Amino acid sequence: MGATFDFSFVFQYFIKLLPTIQLTLLIVASAIAIGLVVGFLVALPQMYNIPVLRRVSQVYISFFRGTPILIQLFLFYYGLPEMLKLIAVDAARWPALYFVILTYGLHSGAFMSEMIRAAVASVDRGQVEAAYAVGMTGPQAFVRIVLPQAFATALPVFSNLIIASLKDTSLAFSVGVMELTGKASTLAVVSRHLIEAYISLAAIYFIVSFVLERLLRLLEQRVQKRGLASL
Amino acid sequence: MIALSGIKKSFGKNEVLSGIDLKVNRGEVVAILGPSGSGKTTLLRCINYLEKPDSGVISIGDFKLNCRQHGKKDVHALRQKSAMVFQQYNLFRHKTALENVMEGLVVVRKVSKAEARERSIALLEKVGLGAKLNAYPSELSGGQQQRVGIARALALNPEVILFDEPTSALDPELVGEVLSVIRQIAEEGITMIIVTHEMGFAQEVANHVVFMDGGVIVEEGEPKQLFRYPKEERTQQFLKRITPEAGYSI
């Protein structure tokens, strides 16, 4: 099969893969940013029990939670340009990265909305009533009382979602985006040092998640008590 | 100065308030008594619209609100006339004692931070918590939390403070410290409406006692008269059950 195992390649590939971390992190960051916005919008009709929109958001969540992200990626990458053709938009030449970011954003949006809904529900109703009783408006009570506490509750889940989506990005290669996994696979196939390439790849994913995890843990500890005020 | 008229409220088919009329004068301390399920807490919560009455008119001072026709702004205005002390304290858990008291002043009343701080510290000292300004609710006992709750209500300088069973969630040994704070502010002439199960306290502090049952006011009057010579049979039964036998006190 491959060439004889040679440890020096592990180090060599590691260095070669480093610059690609940027692209992987770009996908993660954009997906999380889109996910937060979408997740909030999707959580709203559930929290405020808005009749029709509530149904729509439930369908959205079931779809993105209930199907593999790889399939979602294919559906968007191959399906969306066809759909856009119908309204005379030519998406055939759009970079695959756009579709990847869109898919991952919508995917994490489904999970984010569940996170937001649960976190907001965890702030007891009594505090909202107290906020009304001191004369706050609904938005004031939400921003000043509910949100900071919900944020603290959501943070551990949020950390998990970030780490999970970091690893999900390895599937972007299947539509031809040259992120970490794509780059490593190419190196592996060209040089036939497969194991070495995948060891370097695993090491890089591990280090990036480890650093992210640590950073998020620090943030968690700060926010635990004081909510947003500590940021 | 506070007048409720024809307040009605149902939860589904269950009518909780069947037309309540109540007048409270400035500086008066009104205690609302009654068995559980009599609608007393719901009535209190209707006064600041935490519960929306189905019909009736609420007026506090010169502000009048008809429950059948009003906008969001009216509710907002109504709520600014009163403050509430809750059974479960309901302090903002991510804020210190001081920040809890300042919150309404800064956010709602637009008082400057420095002034709000000064006023809040004075109030916390008044309720005996001068040493706990920077403690979070989780670091305070129930009695201390409730005293912060009272300071938070006082800070707004409202026309009336509504107390919803302020000592019901407390350990017996902590009830005293909260009652003495309420007694102290009652003496300062602040208008208060208190839903309570503390009969002795109601008798001592209130100028006016209201007995509710089944969503109506059964009887009301001066505490001495109502406690000693209740006219209605329902009141007599209630008082007999909860007050200790004559000649025997705990």
Summary of the model, kept short:
Chain A: The chain crosses the membrane at residues 20-44, 56-77, 97-120, 141-163, 197-216. The complex is a heterodimer of chains A (231) and B (250). Chain A is an all-alpha fold and 231 residues long.
Across the major sheet of chain B, the strand order is 6-7-8-3-9-10
Tell me the radius of gyration of chain B: 18 Å
Query: Which strand-content bin applies to the residues of chain A?
Result: under 5%
Strand content of chain B: 15-25%
> If interface size is counted as residues with C-beta under 8 Å from the partner's C-beta, which chains form the largest one?
A-B, 22 and 24 residues
Q: Report the C-alpha radius of gyration of chain A, rounded.
A: 21 Å
Mean pLDDT of chain B, to the nearest integer, reads 92
Q: Let me know the largest β-sheet of chain A.
A: none
Residue stretches of chain B low in confidence (pLDDT < 50, at least 5 long) are none
> From N to C, what is the helix and strand string of chain A?
HHHHHHHHH
Structural class of chain A: mainly alpha
Topology order of chain B in helix (H) and strand (E) letters: EEEHEEHEHHHEHEHEEHH
CATH topology of the domain at 2-91 and 160-242 in chain B: Rossmann fold
Helix amount of chain A: over 70%
Question: Which quaternary structure do these chains form?
Answer: heterodimer
Characterization of the model:
- Chain A: It holds the Pfam family BPD_transp_1.
- The complex is a heterodimer of chains A (231) and B (250).
- With 231 residues, chain A is an all-alpha fold.
- Chain A has a single domain, classed as MetI-like fold.
- In chain A, 80% of the residues lie in helices and 0% in strands.
- The termini of chain A are far apart.
- Chain B has 250 residues and is of the alpha/beta class.
- Helices cover 38% and strands 24% of the residues of chain B.
- Chain B has a 6-stranded mixed sheet, with helices on both faces.
- In chain B, helix 3 crosses helix 4 and helix 3 packs parallel to helix 5.
- The N and C termini of chain B lie far apart (38 Å).
- The relative contact order of chain B is 0.17.
- At the A-B interface, helix 6 and helix 7 of A face helix 2, strand 6 and helix 3 of B.
